[in-house]
């Protein structure tokens, strides 16, 4: 598979973040707008023909103690639902939260499109991989068994050998890959999911904070990534242990087609505004808070690291903190997605000093994401809050929704059940 990244020069950043003074004006006017903000989401369910690219934010190290390297704006006041009509003064101020459009997608990646890779030298991989093949009905001709070292990082030579085995074994009907292991999770400064799917980018280690090439799969309308983009997105079937992995696979299977239907369980998407300014840079791309009534999805924009409520089933959770605890006390909807913007969430094992993305899986999420090397806080290196949700709501599988939400995925590790699709409209044989 050739590396499928368009030139980074094709990406022209949009303007700098709004000033603190302007955001103060937003905060003063937001009460008059909040009613409109709450119901505009009803209109946003109508998916447009083309995707809007996310705003660019100048980056600073996500591990830095201060945000001195970038002018990160103050976080605005949270809109509260109000019946007060908008005033003339408030109408003159544009709120930062507006729905974006994504391409309309027909179909999705299913079990018939998925290849499975098992590491014979890893007992976890053998047990979890064989279980996944049985649960998802993946036949033997689409299960590749390899031998890999059980360590966090593969060498470039080992990665090339793995890619050769993958390309020889799977035919063109296999559009995506499930990798049944926890380690290895990186190849140098790249995640193993990106390195296997997009190819090696050895120059990345010279400056892991650099701007990168844009993934051709970003915000794509395709449900056939190999055919249309020449790449197979991949995802690790990773969890804290085999018992947690079994629960993950159960959740993924149980999620399929269970949400977004008449009488379906209402679920919630939480977008958290934390006190960590460096890691809260995604706030500009949050959706308006409100109810998407046709799909019974409520979006929330709230202060804090995690939602205060533990009773409402969570479909999506985006936050920005280096460490968190208490996620296991939340109620997770089938097929839930969750991640935290920080430097080393993708370092699944070891002692990075930051919470591993595995914590989301072990708490009850079905898929997650984290970076394996210092990304700085380029928003393009992390899942776009709206694109992830909107692709998922169209019936995409977890692997598609997550991959399509990251513009620069080279350092990002995708983990979870790739086939989970809670908003699937029907089963595809």
Can you put this structure into words, describing what you see?
Helix 3 runs parallel beside helix 7 and helix 9 runs antiparallel to helix 10. The longest helix has 25 residues. By secondary structure, the chain is an alpha/beta fold. The protein folds into 2 domains: 188 residues; 137 residues, no CATH class.
Q: Say how many strands there are.
A: 16
* Proportion of strand residues: 15-25%
Low-confidence stretches: 1-60, 62-94
- The end-to-end distance, rounded to whole angstroms, is 27 Å
Number of helices: 10
- Into which percent range does the helicity of residues fall? 10-25%
Q: How large is the radius of gyration?
A: 20 Å
Enumerate the strands of the largest sheet in spatial order, edge to edge or round the barrel.
Answer: 11-12-10-13-14
Secondary structure blueprint with pairings:
Layout: E1 5-6, H1 20-44, H2 88-91, E2 114-119, H3 123-136, E3 143-146, E4 153-154, H4 156-169, E5 176-180, E6 186-187, E7 190-191, H5 192-198, E8 214-215, H6 225-229, E9 234-236, H7 242-255, E10 267-273, E11 290-292, E12 297-303, E13 314-319, E14 332-340, H8 358-363, E15 367-371, H9 385-393, H10 398-404, E16 412-416
Parallel strand pairs: 2-3, 2-5, 4-6, 5-9, 10-12, 10-13, 13-14
Antiparallel strand pairs: 1-8, 6-7, 11-12, 15-16
Summarize this, please?
With 429 residues, the chain is α/β, with parallel strands linked by helices. It has helices spanning 20-44, 88-91, 123-136, 156-169, 192-198, 225-229, 242-255, 358-363, 385-393, 398-404, and strands spanning 5-6, 114-119, 143-146, 153-154, 176-180, 186-187, 190-191, 214-215, 234-236, 267-273, 290-292, 297-303, 314-319, 332-340, 367-371, 412-416. It folds into 2 domains: 33-64 and 256-411; 106-242, no CATH class.
């Amino acid at each position: 598979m050739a590396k499928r990244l368009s030139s980074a020069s094709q990406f022209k950043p949009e303007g700098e973040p709004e000033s603190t003074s302007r955001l103060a004006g937003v905060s003063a006017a937001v009460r008059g707008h909040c009613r409109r903000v709450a119901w505009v989401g009803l209109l946003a369910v109508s998916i447009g023909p083309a995707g809007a690219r996310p705003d660019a934010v100048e980056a600073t190290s996500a591990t830095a103690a201060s945000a001195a390297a970038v002018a990160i704006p103050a976080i605005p006041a949270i809109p509260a639902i109000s019946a007060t009509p908008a005033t003339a003064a408030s109408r003159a101020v544009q709120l930062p939260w507006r729905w974006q459009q994504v391409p309309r997608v027909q179909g999705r990646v299913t079990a018939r499109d998925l290849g499975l890779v098992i590491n014979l030298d890893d007992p976890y991989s053998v047990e979890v991989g064989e279980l996944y093949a049985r649960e998802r009905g993946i036949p033997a001709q689409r299960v590749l068994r390899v031998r890999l070292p059980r360590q966090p990082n593969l060498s470039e030579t080992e990665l090339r050998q793995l890619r050769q085995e993958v390309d020889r074994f799977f035919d063109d009907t296999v559009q995506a890959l499930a990798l049944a292991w926890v380690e290895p999770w990186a190849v140098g400064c790249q995640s193993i999911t990106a390195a296997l799917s997009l190819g090696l980018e050895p120059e990345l280690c010279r400056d892991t904070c650099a701007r990168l090439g844009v993934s051709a799969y970003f915000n794509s309308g395709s449900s056939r990534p190999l055919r249309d983009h020449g790449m197979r997105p991949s995802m690790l079937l990773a969890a804290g242990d085999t018992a947690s992995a079994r629960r993950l696979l159960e959740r993924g299977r149980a999620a399929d087609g269970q949400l977004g239907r008449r009488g379906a369980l209402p679920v919630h998407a939480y977008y958290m505004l934390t006190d960590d300014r460096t890691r809260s840079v995604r706030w500009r791309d949050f959706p308006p808070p409100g109810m998407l009534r046709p799909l019974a999805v409520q979006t929330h924009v709230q202060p804090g690291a995690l939602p205060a409520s533990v009773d409402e089933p969570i479909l999506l959770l985006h936050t920005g903190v280096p460490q968190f605890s208490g996620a296991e006390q939340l109620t997770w909807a089938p097929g839930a997605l969750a991640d935290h913007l920080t430097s080393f969430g993708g370092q699944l094992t070891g002692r990075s000093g930051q919470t591993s993305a595995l914590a989301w899986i072990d708490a009850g999420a079905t898929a997650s994401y984290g970076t394996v090397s210092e990304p700085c806080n380029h928003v393009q290196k992390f899942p776009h809050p709206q694109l992830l949700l909107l692709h998922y709501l169209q019936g995409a599988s977890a692997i598609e929704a997550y991959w399509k939400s990251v513009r620069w995925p080279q350092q990002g590790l995708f983990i979870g059940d790739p086939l989970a699709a809670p908003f699937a409209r029907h089963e595809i044989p």
